[in-house]
Amino acid sequence: MNKVAQLQRYWENEYESTTTPFDSEKPDEWIATLEKVHKIKGDVLDAGSGPGRTSIYLADLGYNVLGIDISTKAIERAKLRAAEKGNTAQFLQANLFELPGYDHYFDTVVDIGCFHSLYDDNDRASYAATLHRMCRPGAIIYLRAFSASNPKKVTDPTEHSPDLHEDQIRAAFSANGWDIKVLEERGIDLWISDEMTLKSYFWFAEIHHA
Asked: Do residues 190 and 197 make contact, with C-beta atoms less than 8 angstroms apart?
């Protein structure tokens, strides 16, 4: 099984659950803050949109939003949620690397789980190059990715780990037409459910189309 098929199978299994941490009706606090200080501009790509939490929130505020995810189940859930709300967010099930069109289309990219899910440095570089093609000059990526500072878990050694080092992020974007303006590590209480949060460390980045 190739890497894309493995990644898709992983996320399809995640969305077999009735609910996941990505199904919250409330917007992510970081995204809400970015919007309030006018960081979100123009046409928005929600990369790795899952069941549409961020896309629906931003579309409610009047943004033109496209959410893309590799998981069929996630996109089905997102479309249903948007339809129930009469929301204008658009959703597409796709492998971002193989998606034609949308050249120089987006002004803002929001990524709160896609980049750190990729398998290796080559995939991360391809992702940065793909986004460069899809974005207009002056576009900005707002990226949140798991940090390698998180405590290591005892897991199946074949399981993919999403934890990243600073140099992996810098290498992927700096070599593919992007200028990293902000890259900082923060510890946050990650929402798991209404009854549970988990202290986790993330990289927060603001990356400009050079």
From this structure: yes
List strands edge to edge, sheet with 90-93.
90-93, 64-69, 43-47, 106-111, 135-146, 196-209, 178-193
Q: How many CB atoms lie within 10 A of CB 148?
A: 15
The DSSP code sequence of 28-77 is PHHHHHHHHTT---SEEEEET-TTSHHHHHHHHTT-EEEEEES-HHHHHH
Pairing assessment for the beta strands 90-93 and 64-69 based on DSSP bridges: parallel
Q: Which of 90, 89, 84, 95 minimizes the C-alpha distance to 127?
A: 95
pLDDT tens, residue by residue, 98-107 = 888 999 999 9
CA Rg, the chain, in Å?
Answer: 16
Q: What is the pLDDT of residues 53-77, one digit of tens each?
A: 999 999 999 999 999 999 999 999 9
- CA angle, corner 23, sides to 87 and 64, nearest 5? 30
pLDDT of res. 154: 37
**Rounded to 5 degrees, what are φ and ψ at 121?**
-65, -35
Residues 6+ apart with CB under 8 A from 53: 22, 23, 24, 25, 27, 28
State residue 205's pLDDT score.
Answer: 98
Region 2-28: mean pLDDT is: 76
